[in-house]
Queue: 2 jobs
Job 1
Amino acid sequence: MSYLRSIRPLAQTVAVSTRQPPRIAPAQCIALPLQRRNFSYEATVSGIWQSLSQSAPVAYVQHGMINLHDFSGLPWWATIVLTTVGLRTLVTLPLAVYQNKILTRLEQISLEMPELIKELKAETAYAIKKFNWTEKEARIMYNHSLKKQWNKLIVRENCHPAKTMVLLWGQIPLWIVQSVAIRNLVSMMPDPTAIEAQIAYTELTLGGFGWIPNLTELDHSLILPVTLGIINLSIIEIQAASRTKLPSKLQTIFTNLFRALSVLMVPIAASVPSCLCLYWVTSSAYGLGQNLLLLSPRVRRAVGIPLVPSELTHPYQHLRSTLAAKLGTLTNIGSGNHPPSTKA
């Protein structure tokens, strides 16, 4: 492994020094007739994938992992884990804190709305008598004034509801970029003939751990794919159990959708190289820890998230009791036992 790292700079120098400009033969300068290009779904997907694999963000992450591996001397599995933790700490953790601040600001301004609604109703009733408004006109003016007051509060606190999705805006692109960068290392992209790409691939075949000595192969034991599914389902259940209000119909739909996606990710993770599956597991595990960390009132005060009525005083005890009750219900249903009827 150290021998491969030592010859990497030499290989780059040789590749640059032996590169020659292409020579065009006179026969190649003859104009050829234009050919029609037919649309192909496979060609379109391949083109998008190639453009993504050759993009600048992917190149930065890919070369960053290679440089970290060469500088630190860590095996590739540890390099992937360290890179994942570092990028998530720099990108997604600050976004998660900011998103929680936006959510608390929205809750704080919602507490001001009952008093404003009371005043608007009184003003509307006065206007109906003074200007002889019909019920429809009064309703239109009331809704318009209510929306205007809500927008003023949003501007005052700088907490537009769209900002509650800021974590996804940062997490999804990061997940895609690093996934493609790791996939590039396995497939020796974007230039399979480059000696540096071949060295990185060879090191990946030797940089595994435990039951996965070769990171370019699948995890035939299915330990990592199943772990990925369990962690993702845990994140979803923790988020659902930490709510203090009954979920809306839309929230229930999205919760069930994410549960299905978590299960679907298991066979997908089983069909990709183990180094990519290792990244997904590490990223999900970091997300699980991040969610648990930001439930703590002490941590929330430390990062500047204000106290709101919906915050749990003892979040971990609440999670334990809620999840235990849900598990008990599922166990009773699975065993065919039903709770006793309360009817006489």
Job 2
Amino acid sequence: MSVRSVYQFSSLLRKCTTLSEISHARITHAQTLVNGFIINVTLQTDLLLAYSKCGLIQDARKVFDRMSDRNMHSWNIMIASYAQDSLYSDAISVFDEFRKLGFRPDHFTLPPLLKASAGVREVYVGKVLHGWVIRLGLEDYVVVGTSVLEFYLKCGDLVDARRVFNSMLWQDTVACNLMISGYAKAGLCAMAMSCFSNMIGKGVKMDSRTIPSILNACGGEGALMRGKEVHGNIVRSPFFSTDVVIGNSLINMDGVSTMRSKMKELGLTKTPGCSWITIAGVIHKFYQGDCSHPLAQVIAEMLGQMITVLMLPDAFGRGNHI
């Protein structure tokens, strides 16, 4: 087996990155078999990557299962391929096998696994992965830190998400967008606005995903005026005149304002949003803007304390395990 021949086949396989080029990958695969080169770990890995990039996950798995020597790269490819195709349980299953063989995850292994854990709501698995991130000192990799943050947000755990966000050395546009969107989806408009204000104050640039998220957060009655305050920032941004989503978000915000004014003129009222929780068999209801609960003052004070602590950048040490 000549080095030159292996290099030539490897180069051909690495050019196969889309489904339209799959025929070239299959031809090259056949040629490696005919020439007896398929036992070469480099070619096996390149073939695995080619099938994965072309979206042929079953073919990729066949190559993976037949590999005589699976290196770190091949394990990462297989895990990422399953996660990319939303086959989350399969990704976690491969990782279990990976761990049993004594491999340790790296900064390429963990992001797709965190995505898979969130996809199947495996909170325990995700927290174990977060533990790996901390033990291996990988939290400062931007893609890893962002993946941990996104995991907690997708699982609806805003408290741990905020802890991760506060501990990030690089709170870039992606991280800020995730945090703003998480607060907006939870209806925590004030927190979303505070995060947006901090983002602008630190000089982090907005992008086309920032603005719809913050405008959605401003859809609530109490935050409407704040939404108008950020309107100027949006109009001055380079995305205002070219992004349809941003334009629609602004129209929707203006529509909400007009609708509320019309309802007020007609003497109509909107049923306020309500959430409830059962404690010891007793149902406790909470309405938007309602302070009639007998422990309303205590709840408000406790919530304020929690928010204050979470807003402190050094409230949670970087070495604390979740």
